[in-house]
Design goal:
Number of strands: 33
Oligomer: single chain
CATH class of the domain at 56-162: Mainly Beta
Helix content: 25-40%
Low-confidence stretches: 1-6, 44-50
Length: 731
């Protein structure tokens, strides 16, 4: 025994034995004391020692700068990751990074919440992470879709070291302009009747600005141009626009210009025509080698350079007004008029010196730019077209390194001086190339080229479906947000498919589907891409949102253009705009939506802006809604949290440590009353809620109303077909 005492092990064993004896003695005394208690005192003691239920509504984390510090880490950074829990509600919290466990420590608290934190070192590799909390016997996981008993790693948070997106784009109010239909500022550059032939018929100058688009509309021109945009900059600035997004501006034979003829120049029909020589086509003549007037307009370097110069001055003026510019890049395919293919023999017969096109000659320097299936030169029609369209020849990057370098140069050119545009919107970006492997290789190169030329340029891609693979920090910055905005909003508020091709009663008012679709697709995008995503209600490819509110299935060919204007519901449209102005991302208005323009899907959605006959009430509404969005920083960069989801009713919050905004939408034809758990945003009984904006059947208002918070809940009555925006007020 004496010998054992002189060893560490001996001391430990004797100490443990003494502790066990004392523990047994204490337990016996506690049992006797409890037995001597009254039944009521025993019950009270049990209740005081019972752990509270885990408050899953209190659990929160995201990738904003309050929960990930820094929000956009670089390789070598130490990143602090935070998790919010209920006050004294959990025993332990853990962070798992690439399946490695880190115990988290409580670093801050308030009356409602505790904040746990752990730090990780970031290298070059991508990191995946999630949280786990333990409260008594309860275990809960937390990742991008919220709290769950079972972890779904599909939705884990990500850190992409080095992935930074432009600050100016976060929550920026954008405005999309389809140039031919916006405003005609210079009639001298209008496309002329019979100027050339396109898809088998002569082009047409539409002399009635208010005429609806024809069913076959691509060769009809209304005369809108960049001078018209310049003339309306005061209007756009007054509306509150921060970014102008132009549909394609480069030389092209169609009015939509997604069939690029020359990537190096702005189309003189949108820009400036200083040389205007040559003849129009005679009746019945479809040969564009006879269209000398068109050739002079679009191949004469005087016109091309003057148009580029005008565009540079326009961008400079837009920048002076505090706005940005995004242009459309169509790089998957070009057009059959393109100077590299030259199916119309425009460039080979032009007075200017151009190399022969690949359609004309096997020996063309552009031969490998396209994939040909036969050796039938000259005039080889056997080239690959996008979706089989011979007017849209697909570009053959994999076999043409020169082509790749050329397009990368175009990417740099327009974001550099003297043009200095602020970003690219990329048409059908996932379709570029002939393989998925090459597609990713190209966009990595494109990003590097553009960002080296202009680090603050945004790269925004069009894609239908899951964009996860392209949003990893080395390709696109973000997307046109169909899946995590346009479609869920449309289904919930209207029950319509975005082309007005289908109505589904089961989707109308379905809050579960709304939040489910939003959260799934937002998680696949990642927080950085969501914050700058282009959130549109309408655009040039889909029916106008106002038309979708009539619940009518149709297109111009089946029901007529006028039917798009019938039975519309402006109150539902205003609900949609409120969601647009308060949801994470960049709210983007399609020209004319704010003025009440309706329309079926392409081409009816490309009606002209109704100057002189605008819906003034809707314009005033948009102006006020945009001003609200811009005045509340929390709506641009704050966190997002769903609060209530019932049939035809949703409520959600945008919040940070300073502010909190609650948005409630009642899409039913009945008045409603709802209780909203605003405590989940950090709003307590010491706060009040101030109404800062409301829409209803018949209009909108900005009158101030105050609501009391009771027990962390907001009890509020709602008008039919209404949206309410409320802000926390601290006294």
């Amino acid at each position: 025994m004496e010998q054992k005492l002189h060893t560490p092990e001996g001391v430990r064993d004797i100490y443990n034995k003494e502790c066990e004896i004392k523990k047994r003695s204490l337990s016996m005394r506690i049992v006797k004391a409890i037995e001597n208690m009254t039944a009521s005192n025993q019950k009270l003691m049990y209740m005081c020692n019972t752990r509270p239920v885990l408050k899953t509504g209190a659990l929160f984390s995201d990738v904003t700068e309050e929960y990930r510090i820094p929000a956009e880490p670089q390789p070598g950074d130490t990143v602090k990751l935070r998790l919010r829990t209920g006050r004294y509600n959990v025993d332990t919290a853990y962070l798992y990074v690439n399946n490695q466990e880190y115990e988290m420590y409580r670093v801050a608290n308030n009356t409602l919440f505790d904040y746990y934190e752990a730090s990780v070192e970031v290298a070059e590799e991508k990191l995946y992470y999630y949280f786990k909390v333990v409260s008594g016997k309860n275990v809960c996981f937390y990742n991008q879709i919220g709290a769950a008993k079972e972890l779904n790693p599909f939705y884990n948070f990500q850190i992409m070291p080095g992935f930074q997106t432009p600050e100016w784009a976060k929550g920026a109010v954008m405005y999309q302009i389809f140039t031919d239909r916006f405003c005609n500022g210079d009639k001298s550059n209008d496309v002329l009747n019979d100027e050339y032939s396109y898809i088998g018929e002569h082009v047409c100058q539409v002399d009635d600005w208010n005429r609806y688009p024809a069913q076959m509309d691509v060769r009809n021109f209304y005369g809108g141009d960049l001078k018209g945009v310049w003339d309306k900059l005061d209007y756009l600035q007054d509306l509150g626009v921060e970014v102008i997004y132009f549909n394609p501006l480069f030389v092209s034979p169609s009015n939509h210009k997604y069939d690029i003829q020359d990537y190096d120049y702005i189309d003189p029909h949108f820009g400036v025509i200083v040389s205007d020589e040559g003849k129009l086509l005679s009746e019945g003549d479809q040969c564009n080698t006879h269209a000398s007037r068109y050739m002079d307009r679009v191949t004469n370097k005087k016109n091309l350079e003057a148009s580029n110069e005008f565009f540079a001055k326009l961008v400079e003026e837009i920048h002076k007004r505090g706005m940005k510019v995004i242009i459309d890049g169509v790089f998957n395919h070009c057009g059959s008029f393109n100077k590299w293919l030259d199916r119309e023999h425009i460039y080979s017969t032009s007075p200017e010196q151009y190399a022969s096109g690949a359609y004309e000659s096997f020996n063309s320097p552009y031969h490998t730019f396209f994939k040909f299936y036969s050796n039938q030169w000259p005039d080889n029609n056997s080239y690959d077209g996008w979706w089989g369209n011979d007017t849209l020849p697909k570009l053959n990057y994999e076999e043409a390194d020169t082509l790749e370098q050329y397009i990368l140069g175009i990417g740099k050119k327009w974001v550099s001086e003297p043009y200095c545009v602020d970003g690219w919107r990329l048409d059908v970006a996932a379709d570029l190339g002939n393989s998925r492997e090459y597609n990713h290789q190209f966009w990595k190169k494109f990003r590097k080229a553009v960002k080296e030329a202009n680090p603050e340029a945004v790269i925004l891609a069009e894609n239908y479906g899951d964009s996860y693979d392209w949003l990893q920090g080395d390709e696109w910055d973000t997307i046109m947000n169909y899946d995590a905005f346009m479609e869920p909003v449309t289904w919930f508020l209207t029950g319509m498919q975005k082309h007005s091709d289908e109505f589904r009663q089961d989707m109308l008012g379905n809050a579960g589907n709304f939040f489910g679709a939003m959260h799934h697709n937002m998680s696949r995008m990642g927080g950085q891409a969501v914050a700058i995503s282009m959130n549109e209600l309408s655009n040039h490819d889909h029916s106008r949102f106002l038309t979708r509110t009539n619940h009518r299935v149709g297109r111009t060919a089946s029901v007529g253009a006028e039917a798009a204007n019938e039975g519309i519901n402006k109150a539902v449209f205003m609900e949609a705009v409120i969601i647009q102005m308060t949801w994470p991302g960049a709210p983007t208005i399609y020209y004319g939506d704010e003025a009440g323009v309706c329309g079926w899907t392409d081409p009816d959605n490309r009606r002209t802006y109704p100057w002189g006959s605008e819906d003034r009430e809707l314009i005033a509404f948009h102006k006020a809604a945009i001003a609200m969005h811009k005045s509340q920083e929390v709506l641009k960069t704050g966190s997002y949290k769903p609060l209530v989801g019932e049939y035809n009713l949703i409520a959600y919050g945008r919040f940070n440590q300073k502010d909190a905004v609650v948005v409630i939408v009642n899409n039913s034809e009945d008045e409603r009353r709802v209780r909203v758990p605003v405590w989940e945003l950090g709003i307590t009984d010491k706060d009040e809620m101030e109404q800062i904006f409301v829409t209803f059947d018949g209009g909108f208002g900005e009158e101030q109303l105050w609501y009391t918070v009771n027990g962390g809940w907001l009890d509020i009555g709602l008008r039919k077909t209404s949206a309410v925006v409320l802000k926390r007020v601290k006294w």
